Amino acid sequence: MLDIVLDKNDVARRRVKAWQAYANVADLIVIEQRGYTLRGDLMVSEIKALPLDRPMTTAQDIAAVRDMARRAQAAYPKADLSGYSISALADDVDDLRSALGYDRISLVAASFGSQWAFAVMKSHPGLVTRAVISSAEPLNYGYDMPSDVFAAIRRIVCEADVDARLKPYLPPGGLVAAIQATRNRLAARPVSAVVKHGGSPKRVVMGVEDYQYALIAHAADAATFPAFVLSVYQQNYKNWAQEVIDWRAPETRALINPLINIGLDMTSDRKALLENDPALPLVGRWDSASYLATKGEWATKDAGDEYRRPVLDLTPILFVQGDWDVSTPVENTLAIQTYFPNSRTILLHRGQHNGTFALLRSRPDIAAKVYEFLRNGSAADLPVEVSLDPVAFALPEVRR
Question: Which domain does 352 fall in, by range?
């Protein structure tokens, strides 16, 4: 978060401007999670490059995360890694509140921040006056259901399939048929492409799990998603191969991600649903495989089902959720809102993972009502659904 404050680009300026608007409602305090902050510990692990001459797999990712677990304590010998848990982060918020002299607080949270907010409300009932939660990730929803992710993809596809500019490129059955055909082709046999990278030609081999990874990555940008699907369907692999080189390069990962997520885990009934989800063959296991496989190899203790399961909570909540969000699908919000009887939900049609900020930028009239909710809890004039502007879909590359 603090890197956004310090950056000088347009994205940072828009984000800071949005934050400053909250200061007109109440005192504004930005808190970062322990273990990954520019003003404190930045606990990371280096991951080696993956080879280009074979497909990328979740098995490789499991091995990388397992190696992270083995090296973590030695890399940070003074750190008690068991303390990097979601409940400890919730306590941090309460400690900060107490230190600053506030009796109660309101929360604005998105994505992992929303999970943190749910943890604050679970660990400290009654502490939160009200909250605005976007891109909801409830405590038992750290791993997405593949069918929910694919449902978001289908909502993007429904609009793209009737786009007049894309129609000449669509196969019978539309984009879903193209996705299924490409997936089946790659499951039967990997493909390769030779591309120039760093001044020299490189041969890149790509398989079905590469495709599953790429689907989710590209679906996060609805405007370019159909172009990717159709280009690969037409066996135009060069642009994809360039991306794969970057995805397999050495990288730096934050230790708090596995520490928090693996400690929080999920209930056995939800895990059974995930393991039998009908969309697994299309979406794959990148979201959960490495963390589920290394459960018990990290220092954080299991949070327990009592902590993970939602309970009735009277805290007033305003949920803002995009229906094109593939990172935290809308089904998360629809499931958790029933446990908050004093909640309201704004469904944001065409909204993706940055849905709240897209709404605040494009609809100042709605933004004013969101701020009013934070100021005094007023929800009378809040809409149930808001549509963002239609997306201008990019066209696929033509095979030459």
Answer: 2-36+101-141+311-387
